[in-house]
C-alpha cells in the first residue's frame, strides 16, 4: 500500500506595499487598518466639503463650478431656503467640520490598533474570527446588512421627519409624507418594468423614499437572519471561504453599486436634480464609454458619472483578479496552485490515495 499526501502550499512573501494582505492573520492589526481607512474616507469628505465651500460662488449654479459634494448636500435639503434656492453655507461648513473631527477620532483608533493594541483579537471572545469559519463570517455579513439597513432608514427619517428633501417637482425642500408603499411597483423597477433606464427610471420622490423604507426593512431582516442562522452545507459548497475570496466578493458588489450610481446620476433628475447637477447626460464611445452633457459643459453630473464609471471598472478588475487568486491562480509566478478548499470550517485538507 502506498500513501500520497498533497504537499502544502509554499508561503508567498508579501511585500510591504501590498497593504492589508500582510495582515490576513493579524486580526488586531487588520482592525486598525480598517478603522484608519474609514478615517481617511471621512477626512477626505470633510476636507473636500470645506474646500468646495471656500470656492463656492452662490451667484452661479453649483453644477457650473465643478463641485461634487455640495450638490449632494443641497439635494438633501441642507443649506436651502423655503424657495429651494441656496440660502447660506453654514450648514455645509458645519457638516465638513463634523467630518474632520470624526476623522480625528477614527484616525486615533486606527493608530492604536495598528501600533499599540494586540496583534490578534481575543481568540475566545465575540470579536474572534477565522476566515474559514462560515458561521462567523455570515454573522459579520449580517451585522453589515443591519448597518446598511439603518442607513437606508436614516434617509427615510430625513425625508419624512427631519427637514425633508429637495423635490424637483415643486422646486423646493419639503417633507415627503405620502410614501409609495406599493412593493409590486417598486420591484417592477428592479425587474425592468418601470422604463428603459431600469432602476433609474423612477420619476417621483415618494417612490424613492418608499423604496428606501422597504430596502431598510429587507436589509435589517436579512441581517438578523444571517446573525442568528448558520449556512447550510449546500451553501458552504457554493463559496470559497477565505480572506481573499471575501475581498473579491466585496469588490464585485462595489463595482455593481458604482455602475448603478453611474446610471442614476446620468439620467435621473429626481434623485439628482438638474438645479444642482446640471442637464441629464448622453453616452458616447471613443475607444471607451464616456458620459457628456448635451451642451458640452463639464457639469457636476459629468464629473460624477464618469468618475463612478471608472471606479466601477477598476473595482471589477480587482474583483476578477482576487477571485482568481482565491481560486488558486498566482499571477506573480505565472502558475497556479491548488485552490482553497471549497468547504468551510476547515483550515487544511489533505488528499490521500491508496493502492493495494
Task: Tell me about this structure.
A two-stranded antiparallel sheet has the order 1-8. It has helices at residues 27-55, 70-75, 90-116, 134-160, 183-190, 205-228, 233-238, 243-267, 274-277, 300-326, and strands at residues 2-5, 165-167, 172-174, 282-286, 288-292, 329-330, 335-336, 352-355. The relative contact order is 0.12. It has 10 helices and 8 strands.
Beta strand count? 8
Low-confidence stretches: 1-10, 334-341, 346-356
* Radius of gyration of CA atoms, rounded to a whole number: 24 Å
Mean pLDDT: 87
Write down the secondary-structure element order.
EHHHHEEHHHHHEEHEEE
- Our measurement of the CA-to-CA distance between the termini, rounded to an integer number of angstroms, reads 5 Å
Largest sheet: 2 strands, antiparallel
- The count of helical stretches stands at 10
Note the overall shape: globular
Itemize the secondary structure elements and their pairings:
Blueprint lengths: L1 E4 L21 H29 L14 H6 L14 H27 L17 H27 L4 E3 L4 E3 L8 H8 L14 H24 L4 H6 L4 H25 L6 H4 L4 E5 L1 E5 L7 H27 L2 E2 L4 E2 L15 E4 L1
Antiparallel strand pairs: 1-8, 2-3, 4-5, 6-7
Helix pairs in contact: 1-3, 4-6, 8-10
